[in-house]
Amino acid sequence: MQRLRGRRWRVLWSAPAFAAVAAAAVADPPPRKATLQGAEAVEVAIPTVFTGDLRDLPVAPAWKPGDPIAEIPRRHHRPPRALPPPSEPRVDPLLELQRRVPLRVLDPPLLDFAGQGFTGVNPPDTVGDVGLSHFIQAINSSSGTVFTVYNKADGKVVAGPIAMESMGSGNCANGRGDPVVLFDQLADRWFLSEFSNGGNRLCVYISQTSDPIGGGWFAYQFTAPGFPDYPKYGVWPDAYYASTNESSPAVYAFDRAQMLAGGVATAQRFTAPDLAAFPFQALIPADADGETPPPPGAPNPFLRHRDDEAHNPPGTPGQDFLEIWELHVDWAAPANSTFTGPTNVAIAEIDSELCGFSSFSCIPQPSGPGLDPLREVVMHRLQYRNFGTHQSLVGNLVTDVDGTNHGGIRWFELRDGGSGWGLHQEGTFAPDVHHRWMGSAAMDGEGNLGVGYTASSTTLFPSIRFAGRVAADPLGTLQGEVSVVAGTAAQASNRWGDYAALTVDPVDDRTFWLTTMYTPASAWATRIATFRLCGPPGAPIIGSAVAAAPNRIDVAWADGSPGSDSYTVYRAEGTCAAPGPFVPIAGAAPGFGYEDTTVSGGSTYAYRVTGVDDQCESGLSGCVEATATGLCTLAPLFAGVQTVSNAASGGCQLDLGWSAGTSRCGAALGYNVYRGSTPGFTPSPASRIASGVTGTTYQDNVALTSGQTVYYVVRAVDTSNAVEEGNTVGKSNTPTGPPALGTLGETFEGALSGGGFDNSGWTHQAITSSTDWLWSTAQSHTPTHSWFSDSEPNVAQRTLTSPPFGVVAGATLAFRHTFAFENATTCLDAGTLEVSTNGGGTWSVMPDAAFTAGGFNGTVSPTSGNPLGGQRGWCHGSIGPMTLVTANLGAFAGPNVKLRWRACEDTSLEGTGWFVDSVAVSNVMLPTVCTSLLFHDGFEAGTLVPRWSGAAP
Predict the structure, then answer these.
(1) How far apart are CA 327 and CA 254, in angstroms?
(2) Mean pLDDT of 398-421
(3) CA atoms of 815 and 874, how far apart (whole Å)
(4) In 3D, which of 797, 750, 794 has the Cα closest to residue 773?
(5) What is the pLDDT of residue 799?
(6) What whole-number distance in Å separates Cα of residue 149 and Cα of residue 526?
(7) Closest listed residue to residue 850, CA positions, set 803, 818, 895, 897
(8) Could you point out which of 627, 629, 892, 907 has its C-alpha 20 to 30 Å from the C-alpha of 698?
(9) Of the candidates 819, 856, 816, which has an alpha carbon nearest to the alpha carbon of residue 834?
């Protein structure tokens, strides 16, 4: 190993320490392994902080027909070399291995939904990653990167699209694109990046928490000596590592620990020697996935491929290489940082000459220009996993599979079992005439490997597909292929990619998230899809079904191969030759049987069993049958209550409806109805309100009280055997009585009682505060009084809570207030409005969309110690005439709604406080009576008088 000493680091960029090596590397000999010691450059970056809510940022405008369309050039830093024709094999040596394996059908996507659409820029550089609760996708636009945050449970948009530059400052306030999105699983943080439009900046954003929406971001910018084209990043314990396409392939390390803490961070830089043939070059860093981090002190491996016939003609017969370069950073002494490589890992021959070495026009589509193959780089991401017994690196690139410029996916897995990196498996996936390229590969926590990519040909418009393999499949082979979405038009531009993203859910470590582009029209769109890979176990071998005792059948089976972790037993009434529908009746432990005691004497039953291995289920086993002995004692089959609803008219009455039961012994059925006051109550003779009901409906109008929730259970009864079905479904409802709509108002002018409030039912509380709400004459909208929450320089919270009332569609709220909290540029002290639909059991902040006037004006800082941290509220204001706030309450329809005004402060400065007056709720249910004096809105009194006083404001 050769050791080269670089210049000692300085804060300013230094001349390349690797200049001699880089200059020599354009010659034909491959790079010699060397260790560069001492970073070529060190830069210090001071972050800015974004504390707002992403939902408050402006939505990036959508592209419209007629708007300009831009082509983003790929930067060629060196002219392509004139090389002799390559002596590549005509057929990829790994194709036959793949073609000998019958393709297994893979499961379709779990989620499959539209991502961001055409932005007027080619290519979109589609990228994304998945976190604990969200998926973030980013693409290029005319204003740099735009990103959108999705709820990963259902794919719905949570925030965006947002211009990434809106979180930046300086040069990074003007972004240019090439986005990267990573979820740092080692810290449960988000990493976003793009480059700036000027100043050669790498703009990096680190979320302050796992919540990308309201948790805040640290914004960094690092300066490169030249334009840092095509940046790619990887998460590693000691740094965020990056690579760029500069005058020579450059690599960077950014101080991850400081960036996670929002501290001053430094960057270190090295360069690698060029390769011949490619005018565009970049390495790619490893990005760590999984709960087990890399070994302590492990360097980050960077990778690129070397097609010897292209880069070092005449090349090495029968093989080409993956080059591994390892960057070990020393933050305390940058002069001790090292960049070592290459370690050459031999792979089967690849052919990188796809329509030459620099053409953007190559992969065909049914019409339109050829598409960019992006032959020059190992594709995003180079995924790393530590399995304990070994470490893995997974990646892919495009290769010409038969010498006709036919693009296929070359994928690979490298492993380090303790003696260094070596090739564990590789394969080429090109099963038919279609081209496959622009891939992204990843491996889940079980060792199952997926590859997502674009497919296109003269008969196939650019489409999204994926293939995969489970860990037990033959090495070097993928199983099946699934179409996510088919293109229906040709791309008008030859720019494609420039990359895609396949990532793995950090929560279950099994679900793959794929995002890339396709063509539903002449301009691209993007898609997001999820899938899982697993190998189904062998079907269990069912043995026997024996009538072992009265009203009991014992079912037995043996394990399949591969074995199962658990089993599901299915049963049908009838014989195996003529069974009824099979329904699951139980799960059981491996290798055992099941005792079915829910059978009826004289009846015949058929049984089948499936095995379950993790998340994959085998097919049904064969069928066995048996006839039960003994008496017919089975309870009826019955699904239970379906509906409980208020009567259309006529006082307090609830109407019940249920599905019809099925007799299992041939006798007639009746129904028993039970009512209780608590959910999940146990039916008893004392709670039975009806017996032997012959229909499937019942009207309950005895001793019901408006506003009181009641619960029901209905059971089917075999009248001949007196066997009652016990597995029923309970339902609840609240009788409301005949509703009357009107307005309830409170002006806070009534006489006070000893508790500090009048008798209107309002309450207040100093939860954590030295002062409570006060009845005040300092400010008011009605003649003299309002309620006032003082301010203090301590963590505090106080609540002012309304009585309950009934809400229907069209209900509205109005009140007046004035406030002056701590005067700061960020929202540190605030008041908010909360609503409860269960009489104060739980509370939620009134959503912004509900306000029609005077809504919230800020989001409380999540780091200030304020109990409202991260919530919306009124933050900045000055004491003056009271202003009007109005809101729609229809989304909270129900009989037991409450409102509360909640004031909260942090530990720092204080302001004047908050005055609230003249509260009115309109188009709400007014007090009525059914069978008692309990009012319809839940207020109990002896006279029919609303428990709100005063007029509406």
Answers:
(1) 12
(2) 96
(3) 14
(4) 797
(5) 94
(6) 14
(7) 897
(8) 892
(9) 856
Is the CA virtual torsion 831, 833, 838, 844 positive or negative? Answer: negative
Query: In this predicted structure, which of 23-27, 314-318, 614-618, 730-734 has the lowest mean pLDDT?
Result: 23-27
| CATH code for the domain defined by 95-531 | 2.130.10.10
- Are the beta carbons of 918 and 953 closer than 8 angstroms? yes
Domain with CATH 2.60.40.10 in the chain: 541-627, 641-733
Domain with CATH 2.60.120.260 in the chain: 741-925
Give, for 386, the enclosing helix (H) or strand (E).
Answer: strand 382-386
- State the Cα–Cα distance between residues 85 and 359, nearest whole angstrom: 16
Which range among 51-65, 515-529, 641-655 has the greatest average pLDDT?
Answer: 515-529
CA end-to-end span of the chain: 84
Phi, psi dihedral angles at 256 (to 5 degrees): -65, -45
- The total number of residues shown for the chain amounts to 953
Identify the weakest region by mean pLDDT among 341-350, 497-506, 557-566, 930-939.
930-939
Q: Cβ distance 410 to 399 under 8 Å?
A: yes
| Residue 565, pLDDT score | 82
Q: Could you count the other beta carbons within 10 Å of the beta carbon of residue 152?
A: 22
Q: Which residues are registered as beta bridge partners of 456?
A: 435
Q: What is the DSSP letter of 17?
A: T
CATH 2.130.10.10 intervals, the chain: 95-531
pLDDT for res 106: 83
Give 892-941 pLDDT, tens digit per residue.
988 789 999 999 988 877 888 999 998 989 888 765 445 332 222 322 22
pTM of the predicted protein model: 0.62
| Per-residue pLDDT, 737 | 63
Question: What beta strand segments (E) does 87-174 contain?
Answer: 112-117, 121-122, 127-130, 134-141, 144-151, 157-163
Chosen CATH of 541-627 out of 2.40.50.100, 3.30.70.260, 2.60.40.10, 3.40.640.10: 2.60.40.10
Q: Which of 373, 393, 383, 528 is nearest to 456 (CA)?
A: 373
Mean pLDDT across the chain? 86
562, burial (CB in 10 Å: exposed 0-12, middle 13-18, buried 19+): middle
- CB-CB contact of 677 with 711 (8 Å): yes
Given a cut of 60, whether residue 53 has pLDDT beyond it is yes
Cα–Cα distance measured from residue 282 to residue 268, given in angstroms and rounded to the nearest whole number:
17
Q: How far apart are CA 559 and CA 545, in angstroms?
A: 16
Strand residue runs (E) in 445-603: 449-457, 460-469, 479-485, 501-504, 512-518, 525-531, 541-549, 552-558, 566-573, 583-588, 594-596
For residues 350 and 88, give the distance between their C-alpha atoms in angstroms, rounded to a whole number: 8
Is residue 95 a contact partner of residue 117, using CB atoms and an 8 Å limit? no
Q: Can you spell out the DSSP letters for 812-851?
A: EEEEEEEEE----SS--SEEEEEEESSTTSS-EEPPGGGE
Of the candidates 188, 378, 413, 385, which has an alpha carbon nearest to the alpha carbon of residue 288?
Answer: 385
- E-assigned strand segments in 535-653: 541-549, 552-558, 566-573, 583-588, 594-596, 604-613, 616-617, 624-627, 641-646
Closest CA to 713 of 677, 684, 673: 673
To 5 degrees, how large is the angle CA 890–CA 894–CA 900?
75
Tell me the C-alpha distance between 456 and 368, whole Å.
12
Per-residue pLDDT band for 17 (boundaries 50, 70, 90) equals very low
DSSP label at 637?
Answer: B
From the candidate CATH numbers 3.10.290.10, 2.60.120.620, 2.60.120.260, 3.30.70.270, the one assigned to the domain spanning 741-925: 2.60.120.260
In sequence order, which residues have a C-beta less than 8 Å from that of residue 913 and are 6 or more positions away? 788, 789, 790, 791, 819, 820, 821, 903
Contact (CB, 8 A) for 553 and 629:
no
